[in-house]
Structure formats: structure tokens, C-alpha cells
Amino acid sequence: MGKMKVHVIPHSHWDREWYFTSSRSTMYLVKHIKEVIETLEQQDEYHFYLMDAQSSLVEDYLRYCPEDRDRLVALISEKRFITGPWYTQTDQLVISQESIVRNLLYGIRIASDLGHSMAVGYVPDAFGQGGNMPQIYKEFGISKFLFWRGVADNRLKQTEFIWQGNDGTQMLAEQIPFGYYYGANIPENDTELSSYLEAQIGALEEKASTRNIYFPNGLDQAPVRKNLPELVAKFNQLDTSREYQLASPETFFAELEKEVADLPVISGELTEGKHSRLHKSIFSTRADLKQANNEIENILSNVLEPILSVSYSLGNRYPHHEVAEIWKLMFENAAHDSIGGCNSDTTNRDVAHRYKLARDLTNSLLDLNMRLISEKITQKHPFQFTIFNPLPYANSGVIRMSAYIPEADFTLEDTAGNALDYTILEKTDLTEYVLNQHIYLNPSKAIYMPEKVFLAEILVGVKDIPALGYDTIYLNLERKEAPHYSKETSETSIENEYYQINLAENNTLTILDKTTNRVYKDQMIFEENGDDGDSYNYSPPRNDFRVTSKEALLEKVKADISDVEEAITISFKLQVPYNLIERAAGKSTREMLIQTRISLRKEDELIRFDVKVDNQVLSHRLCVTFATEIASRFSTADQLFGVVQRPVRLPEMDVWEEEGWQEAPISMEPMQSFVSLHDEEHGVAVITEGVREYEIIGANYDTIRLTLFRTFSHMGKTDLLYRPGRASGESIVETPDAQLLGEIRATFAVTLFETTFDKAHIARKAKEYLSPMPVYQFSDFLNGRLIYVYRDEEKNLATKYSLELPNMDNAIMSAVKKAEDSNGIVIRFFNPYLYNEIDIPAIFQGKEIHLDEKKSTEQRTTLKHAKVQSYLFEK
């Protein structure tokens, strides 16, 4: 055998923000990249430098140093300055699948435009690897994977393996077993250096199955080691048993591939925290920021992009640059520390500000494009509403809309004149404000001006809104009927076609499934307990004190009954400890008010929950549980482009302390939107708009526990029950904002089913829940400063329209958008089932593209488990 080859990779892991802000990081980044450029230009023997695979860093640099673009292009084209494929180093477990796809799409395009994008999935520090990432990487032409966290030696003794995704896609993987910073502190004294090499490289040799070793030289925000070529030469002089060379991830894999054979295969998610911390309960850190992320991700890919596609098909400009700006704001917040919330309060305020910008841009762009359509629709009434359907099939149901309505009697009706069921939930008199905003661009035009104007929240039942299209409804003043309001009662039960829900004496819900008469008791139990953890990990106090809503004081119950919805609002107070000191002493001196609105819409299989909590106590956690009476060994949750089954308890929990794991292998798990417990006959699923974290609990593991929020006092703490030893992050950084004092809101839904999981179509229900049909009101009296004044447009659009893209029955549409490089429309589907395969209609044949929107030569006739497929329909 030849010598062991040690590939020395100079790099810097560049967190855009953490305990420091992105502003501070960027100023140091400019200095750093300029030094890297100068070093590479001045030293031909300095062959490579890896800039953390984030093209956003180069974009940031060129914003301040545009004069260096040509210098960077030359170095990137020569594959010496290495960037891409990521835009930012994203999380892979609670960030949406479309966010990850666009992160790679933009990251690769930016790097490629500068000369070259690294074709290695480099993930040095993310807290675990998503189980379907091999398929996503492959769709971007990436077949190599280089990472640190997620695989332990109880499953793999060597650093090289084949990683197989949930769909079966395989890729060559190399683990950096001791971290990306392992070779950062190289001594320069010959004696010390010899001992250092023997210890450091020797440890890597023990884990290598080939003659190639990956040896990273760098760490967080590390300056370039300018004398590294000299040091590598000295390595070869002092250690003649090995061959040392400067390398890049791509050159390393080129050598590795020559030797690997019969590698072990590891499948699915990589989330083992034996040797490196995964921080599994970070999924619920800073619930306020997690909720903001999820809300914007949902509206961006589920609502905005579909409506933009409809608008584009009607002749309007597709706003690529505006959409890119929104996605890039989301990518900045998707970086593992940023979405984790494991930052200083100052940094998390920056994260919150970016969410505000992204939300404002998303809502404004949606409003503009709905308006561009609505103002051209033939106008029949002064109060006209356009209802948009962002799904690829006709949709019906009860929707919520904000509307400016008159004081006069009226009827809501469709284009055929059929009266629609509705109820006004609330309204506010805004007459003076609204009418004073009006601007008469054309004083000669007579328009309807109401005497009084109210801003109302209305629930209205609509039917058969066209797929990826719109329909029109009217407020008809000529067909007078008294406005519909809900009837408030003191009843403690509600029902619709599917369920009857009763409030039990112990403050829980009893739900009757009316289709089978199956009764579910002890539903919606709120659990409050202490949190002795930090911004990285939930950890129970050693002396915990738990409180549940079963012991709470019931303050008020009211029901609101209408033709389109029945709802019950329950308010109760929990007597809870103020802080961890009181909790340890078993004292409860504070009241925590929880108000929950449970609603059943007409002909809807979802039970909707809207929870508001007045949080005035410290360092605790609030969850809600739903008992299923289904003894389970596995839970089913959605993940990247599919579903995954996870054990409800890991056997490593019995040995983790004895084996010295970095953290307890708890079963708090992430999801994209839903989790389910089921057998072959029935099941229960919880769909969340907020925190994407759950745990299966109970003696028989038959209860779903959804985390609503957790609070804590410090960025990092030492010696936690679930994470012994050193602090993660900085223990001196206090985080008072993370106590989340004030009102906290959580929204989610529950659905029951009497069939198998696949036949219940839970993913479709989740998609519909997270893809609300938005509404635009066109009324001339609103024209003015209130909504930006507009000129009259020719009314040349029909009252109903569909983009008429083909649907793939039973598949879930993940995205529809204009193509990046053509005038066509991209539509993307995935298989959301455990076992079912989906037949692909013939109309899709020949239109296959990859996630990078390049033409695919593979033509499928079926969409198998966890598979994703995109198609391009030219305009």
C-alpha cells in the first residue's frame, strides 16, 4: 500500500450571526475575503480556500467591494476560491422543503455566475441532516456529501459510507468526525508539530477506511493561515510516513472515489448526538420566531407564488427579483443558528426584523398581483370580491376574509346569483378614516360612496373555486337581507357533519367521530412544566413541578353558532410557579390565563384550535396533548418531500449516560406540518401552523404532545439534565427576551380518520389548511391613499379563470412558479404516502426537469415513496 494521503483543506466556517450580529460579522467578512483574495493571488502554491460553501458571503462582499468582482471571478473560475452550492448554511429539519430547494437554486446560480459552484453538499455545522437530502442534492447534480453532525460510532465506525435517502437515492458521504475546527490550531515549533501530527492525524487514520484523510484547517471566523503552504511542506518533512497536500472538498472526493468499494449504507435522517450535539429540542426555541418563519414560508410557497403564476399567465410581469429578495431574507434566517434561535437577544431582534421585512414584502406583492387581476374583472356591483385558489384542483370550503362593508342590508352571492352562507365575526366603524382617504382621479365618474363603512371579518362558504385561478362573489345591496351574525350561547358543545365536541368536567374535550361513533376522551390537555435548558436544548429541572389544565380554574365558556361555523371559546387559569426556584419548592404563586377557541367549519374534517396564552412566568414550557388510544412503536410525520416513520422511543435512552453521549437521545422530533399516530383502522393527526416539534408520550406511547412554546434565561448553560458538561454557545449571555413575556398565540388543527394513513390523505389536508384562499376586494370608494390610488383599467377579464395546469391526483403540489430561464411555468409534485405509488398522467411525459430547472432525461410513469418531480410547461 502507498502512503496515507492527508488532504489539508484551508477554510473558515462563517456564521453570519450568533452571539454577534450580522452587521458586525459582515464588516469582518469584508476584511477576511480581501485577505483571502490577496493571499491566493500572491501565493500560487496556496491552491485552494473554502469559503464555507455559502455564496451569500461573496454576495455580501461584492456589495461593499464591487471593484473586486473580476478578481473573484478569476479565482472562483480556477476553483481556488471555493463557494456554493448553498446560499446560506441552512437547517434541514424545521426549514421547509421549498426553502432548502431555493437555497441551493440561488446559491448555485450565484456561484456559477462567478465561475464555479462546488459540487459537494458541504454541511459543517447543521444540527442534523434531513432524510431526503440525498435526493435533493442529486437533483442539483451533487453526488458527494461532507458533514460533521449526525452519525455516531454505534452505527458506523468509519468516516466513509453511502448515504441513502428516504426515497432510495444514494450518495458518497464523508464525515468530519471531530468537527470542522479539528485542524485549526497547528503549532509551528517542530517538536510540538511532530507530536501534534501524530496525535491528530493518527486519530483520523483510525476512522478512515481508505488511504485518504480529510483534515480541515479553520474554525469559526478564522483568519486565513497565510503560511499554510510552508506548514504543509514542513508536515511532509517531519512525517515521511504520510503524504500531505493542500486540497479542496472536490479534489479530496476525486481521490477518495478511486479507492472506495463496498461501503456500508446508512439510510434516512442523520440525527445521532453521541459525539456531537444535535440539540433536538431546538425546534421549539424562540417559538415567536419559529411561528414567523412558518407563516411566511407557507404564504410564500403555498399562496404567493401560485397567485403570481396566475397573474403572469394573464399578462402581468412575473417579479423574479422581488421574490428572490424575499427568499434571501428567509435564507438568512434559515441558517442553523438563526432559525435555531440560539443567539443573543440583539441578534434575534435582527432575525425578527428580517421576518417583518419578508412578511411585508410577501403581503404587498400578493396584494398587488391580486389587485392587477381584480381591477380588470367585469364589475357588476360596488362591492366585488375576487377569491383566489392557490391549489391545483378546484377548492370549496369556508374561508375568512377582511372586507369593507356598508351599514345597509345586503346579500353575499356568487356570479350566478346564488346566496352564500356567511357570518360576520366582528366589525369596526372606519367611516371617517376610509372615506377621507378617497382620491377622485376622475371627478366626472360617478361612483358609489357608502354613508358608513365598517371593516369586517367574515367567514363565507364558497364552492368550486377554479384550480390555480379565481372566482368572483358580490355583496348585493339590491337583494336586502339582514346581515348574518353568530349567535352567542353558553353551550359547552359544538358540532358539524363530522364531529361533536363537548367540554368535559375536567376541562378536557370529548370528541365524537360521527361517521363511526368512535369517542375520543381526554383531548386538549395543556401541560406546563419547568425548563432548565437554554437556547439550544430543553431540559427539565431536576426538581420539576408539572401543572395541567385538568386542575385549572374554568373562567368562562361561550359558544358561537352560525350557518358556516360552530365555535367554543374556553378560558381557564393555571396556577403555576413563577420561576425555577419556586418550582423546586413546589410553590405556585402566579396565574397563567389560557384562552382557546375550538372551531368546526361547515363540511370540514379539521378541528381548528386558536390558543392565546398570557405568559407572565419564567423558564417553563407549555404543550398540548391529544390521546389516541393507539399503542404505537412509531410516529408518522411529514419531512422533506415525503413522510417518515420514527421510533417513539430510542433504545439508546437506556445507555446514553453510560456511553457518554453528548446529549440525551430524546424523542422530541421535527415535522414540516403534521404528525400522526395510526394503526390499520384509524388514526389521529395534528397539523401545526406554529412550532414544528412533537413527542409521543404515555405508558403505551399513544398520546401526541405538541410543543407550543418554551422559555429560558440564557443562551447557554452547563450541566443540564439532558445535556451534561459544558455549555453550548455562551453561558454568560443572558436572554431575557427568550422568556417571551406577554401574549403568545398558537394555531393548529386536529383530524381523525377511520382508515389507513395512506387512504386518509393527511398531507392533502395539511396542504389545504396551510394554503388559505386569499381574497381581494375591488370597490371604487376604496381608491385612494388607503390602498394606493389607481387609474381605471379596461374590464377585460372574466369573472372566473383557471391557469389550467394539469394536476397529479393524490400527489402534493410543492411549488408552482415561473421558470428562472424561460417563459414557462414550473410545477412540482411529491409523493406523501408511506406505501402508495402515484400514477403519473401521460400529459407530464417529456416535461420533466430537475430541481435546478435543467432538463431531465429520466421519464417516470409512477411517483414512488418520498419522490419529488418537477415539470416545465412552456407558455
Automatic annotation (TrEMBL):
UniProt cross-references to SUPFAM superfamilies, sorted A to Z: Families 57/38 glycoside transferase middle domain, Galactose mutarotase-like, Glycoside hydrolase/deacetylase
Entry EC number(s): 3.2.1.170
Keywords: Glycosidase, Hydrolase, Metal-binding
Xref: Pfam families: Alpha-mann_mid (PF09261), Glyco_hydro_38C (PF07748), Glyco_hydro_38N (PF01074)
GO molecular function terms noted in the UniProt entry: alpha-mannosidase activity; carbohydrate binding; mannosylglycerate hydrolase activity; metal ion binding
Class of the enzyme per the UniProt entry, highest EC level: hydrolase
Domain Glycoside hydrolase family 38 central: from-to ranges: 277-355
Protein's GO biological process: mannose metabolic process; oligosaccharide catabolic process
Database matches in InterPro entries: Gal_mutarotase_sf_dom, Glyco_hydro/deAcase_b/a-brl, Glyco_hydro_38_C, Glyco_hydro_38_cen, Glyco_hydro_38_cen_sf, Glyco_hydro_38_N, Glyco_hydro_38_N_sf, Glyco_hydro_57/38_cen_sf
UniProt keyword Metal-binding, yes or no: yes
Similarity annotation: Belongs to the glycosyl hydrolase 38 family.
Protein name: Mannosylglycerate hydrolase
Organism encoding this protein: Listeria grandensis
Highest classification ranks of the organism: Bacteria, Bacillati, Bacillota, Bacilli, Bacillales
